[in-house]
Specification:
- By secondary structure, the protein is mostly helical.
- The protein is 87% helix and 0% strand.
- It has one domain.
- The longest helix is centred in the middle third of the chain and has 74 residues.
- The N and C termini lie far apart (98 Å).
Length: 85
């Protein structure tokens, strides 16, 4: 193989690698954008779940406090509470 043929082959292979690399870059940029979108959605869902969990915990504490008050009122009024049904 002559130097000229080798140079042509080298340039051809280099050009092909550059084309493949450019396609990979484009695909990875697209993939990065989609992954950012997915992670953003996951962050939103996680934040919503954390907020709901905090709200449920606050409501549970409030319900417990109300139950204690009702029990105190029932004892103070000398009333027995019963479940209807």
């Amino acid at each position: 193989m002559s130097d000229d043929q080798f140079t042509k082959l080298f340039k051809y292979v280099e050009q092909r690698f550059n084309e493949v690399e450019a396609r990979f870059d484009t695909r990875f940029d697209s993939l990065d954008s989609r992954m950012d979108s997915i992670f953003g959605a996951m962050d939103t869902v996680t934040k919503d779940q954390e907020t709901e969990e905090t709200e449920r915990l606050a409501m549970s504490h409030q319900l417990d406090r109300h139950e204690r008050w009702i029990q105190q009122l029932a004892r103070g009024a000398d009333t027995e509470l019963a479940i209807e049904g």
